[in-house]
């Protein structure tokens, strides 16, 4: 595991954008495409803007396929829909074609939406093992990642899959990659900043004994891939040095 700590969000986003572009270049050179899984929430907005502006001419964006590690069970025009945030911040600004974007269809019931999403992913990988080039992840202040929330069925889900999950504390359903699917990726990067994440990060990175039911981000441990944490100094302020 590689832990990169930044003093400013600008430096963090600049470095993370460079990292995304480097992996994209390598994937395109090797396979003529880059399978890129986006994270939702609000933390990645600046990164996506950065990629869509400074990164605009650095790679061939027509060779990039975009996926979502999780989605909220809301309509596609709802501000909480992760796909809409990505559409506004990176996909539309880069003019990404619809057939290169894998949105979660939330007009379907959550369970069906998850099944259809996995089917679409499998079809894209055309019988090959589903191994993403890069999965970006965020982490909530309760240590959830993607939509693997504490004390939910997803914490114990051992299938390489996309699943629907009822999140009691939010009284809502989510659709999410399972940890085993995430852990197959070639590269996984967490983007975590702010004081409100410090307590969770202390446990997720610092605890020698895991408690994944309470801190689901501890489930992320790529089998053969690389895990990198891009964090700011506020988020690591409670970690023992
Ligand atoms: O609900 C969600 O939260 C996490 C964390 O979001 P952040 O803005 O606090 O980083 C995010 O990774 C996930 O995609 C999203 O659906």
TrEMBL record:
Q: In which pathway does it act?
A: Carbohydrate degradation; pentose phosphate pathway; D-ribulose 5-phosphate from D-glucose 6-phosphate (oxidative stage): step 2/3
Does the keyword Ribonucleoprotein belong to this entry?
no
Q: Name one GO biological process term.
A: carbohydrate metabolic process
Q: Which residues form the Glucosamine/galactosamine-6-phosphate isomerase domain?
A: 9-229
Q: Which CDD domains match?
A: 6PGL
Is Hydrolase among the key words of this record? yes
Check the record and name the PANTHER family matching this protein: 6-PHOSPHOGLUCONOLACTONASE
Source gene?
pgl
Record Gene3D superfamilies = 3.40.50.1360
What span is annotated as the signal peptide, if there is one? none
What does this gene product do? Hydrolysis of 6-phosphogluconolactone to 6-phosphogluconate.
The species is Pedobacter roseus
Task: Kindly list the GO molecular function terms attached to this UniProt entry.
Answer: 6-phosphogluconolactonase activity
Q: Which reaction does it catalyse?
A: 6-phospho-D-glucono-1,5-lactone + H2O = 6-phospho-D-gluconate + H(+)
Protein name as annotated = 6-phosphogluconolactonase
């Amino acid at each position: 595991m590689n832990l990169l700590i930044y003093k400013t969000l600008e430096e963090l986003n600049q470095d993370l954008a460079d990292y995304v572009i480097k992996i994209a270049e390598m994937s395109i050179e090797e396979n003529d495409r880059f399978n890129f899984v986006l994270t939702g929430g609000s933390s990645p907005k600046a990164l996506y803007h950065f990629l869509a502006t400074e990164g605009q001419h650095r790679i061939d964006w027509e060779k990039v396929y975009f996926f979502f590690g999780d989605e909220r069970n809301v309509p596609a025009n709802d501000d909480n829909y992760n796909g809409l945030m990505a559409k506004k911040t990176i996909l539309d600004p880069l003019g990404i074609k619809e057939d290169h974007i894998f949105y979660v269809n939330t007009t379907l019931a959550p369970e069906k939406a998850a099944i259809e999403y996995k089917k679409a992913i499998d079809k894209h990988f055309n019988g090959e093992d589903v191994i993403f080039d890069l999965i970006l992840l965020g982490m909530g202040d309760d240590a959830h990642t993607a939509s693997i929330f504490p004390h939910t069925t997803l914490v114990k889900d051992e299938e390489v899959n996309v699943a629907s999950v009822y999140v009691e504390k939010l009284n809502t359903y989510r659709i999410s990659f399972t940890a085993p699917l995430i852990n197959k990726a070639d590269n996984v990067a967490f983007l975590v900043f702010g004081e409100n994440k410090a307590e969770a990060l202390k446990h997720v990175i610092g605890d020698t004994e895991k408690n994944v039911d309470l801190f689901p981000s501890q489930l992320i441990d790529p089998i053969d891939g690389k895990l990198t944490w891009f964090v700011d100094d506020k988020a690591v302020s409670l970690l023992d040095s």
